[in-house]
Design brief:
Length: 254
């Protein structure tokens, strides 16, 4: 029997079947600053609008049936930004937790963090840890917040942990390394979206993204709405993931 076609609740009329929806979507939310500059506004306004947009995309992702959403909110390189901007991004994280946590929890969002929390203010670390603990049993949507995250740093961290655990060289394989990354236990991303037209990986999920489909869009993050997300999902649905194999092999299911 043919699978029932379910309309995704987006403004776009093109339907996606449930089996076409990527399980794990990761987003490099780029272009807040340029969005603001294009409107003669301060960069802070771009981040404010970017945060508003995050609410919309979280809601849409849950509605569509995405199970894991990994969001690049602050990279290990972002410490090099002007002090006031770094402080603002820290304040945004704090206010998102203060204002949105109860609703996210009620909607079944499980909040996780990837990156190095130890470098941020102890008070904020505590809030993040409490938010993770509060939502740990939720299973509607896992939101994995990459904050003070860098892919190379993540691999260095994993190697150190593996050595500290005394694991012999011959036991080290890809699965073991994956299990020591911040994303341990989660499947690799299927789709990585980057807004704002940049065509770089920027140290984001460099191990886990080995076979992800990339979707760059020129749209700045504050304007990346539900319809744009739907376009990205449609593009994903039309990709052929070969994982190193040939088309013929895929057709004959070899
Ligand atoms: C990139 O735009 C965006 C960031 C570095 C921060 C992303 C933050 C948000 C979307 C707000 C939500 C944040 C949290 C912590 C939940 P950019 O400033 O690099 O833009 P530009 O490249 O145009 O200058």
């Amino acid at each position: 029997m043919a699978a029932a076609v379910r309309e995704t609740p987006t403004p776009n009329s093109e339907a996606l079947r449930p089996d076409q929806i990527p399980h794990h979507v990761a987003i490099i939310m780029d272009g807040n600053g340029r969005w603001a500059k294009a409107r003669g506004l301060p960069r802070t306004e771009g981040h404010r609008q970017g945060t508003e947009n995050l609410r919309r995309i979280l809601q849409a992702s849950g509605d569509i049936g995405i199970r894991i959403l990994t969001l690049y909110a602050f990279s290990t390189e972002n410490w090099g930004r002007p002090r006031a901007e770094v402080q603002m991004l820290m304040r945004i994280l704090e206010s998102v937790i203060d204002r949105e946590l109860a609703e996210l929890n009620q909607k079944g969002v499980q909040l996780r963090h990837i990156g190095d929390l130890s470098a941020i203010a102890p008070r904020l670390q505590k809030k993040v840890r409490e938010a993770i603990a509060l939502t740990r049993d939720n299973d509607k949507l896992i939101v994995n917040l990459a904050f003070n995250y860098g892919g190379r740093g993540e691999i260095v961290h994993a190697v150190r942990q593996i050595i500290a655990a005394g694991i012999p060289a011959e036991q080290i394989d890809e699965q073991l390394i994956s299990s020591y990354l911040y994303t341990s236990g989660l499947p690799d991303p299927d789709l990585i979206i980057r807004t704002s037209g940049e065509l770089r990986v920027s140290n984001f999920l460099i191990w886990q993204g080995a076979y992800a489909e990339y979707y760059p869009t020129p749209t700045y993050w504050p304007d990346f709405d539900e319809a744009e997300l739907h376009q990205a999902l449609l593009a994903f649905a039309n990709r052929r993931r070969r994982f190193g194999r040939t088309d013929d092999q895929l057709e004959t299911n070899e």
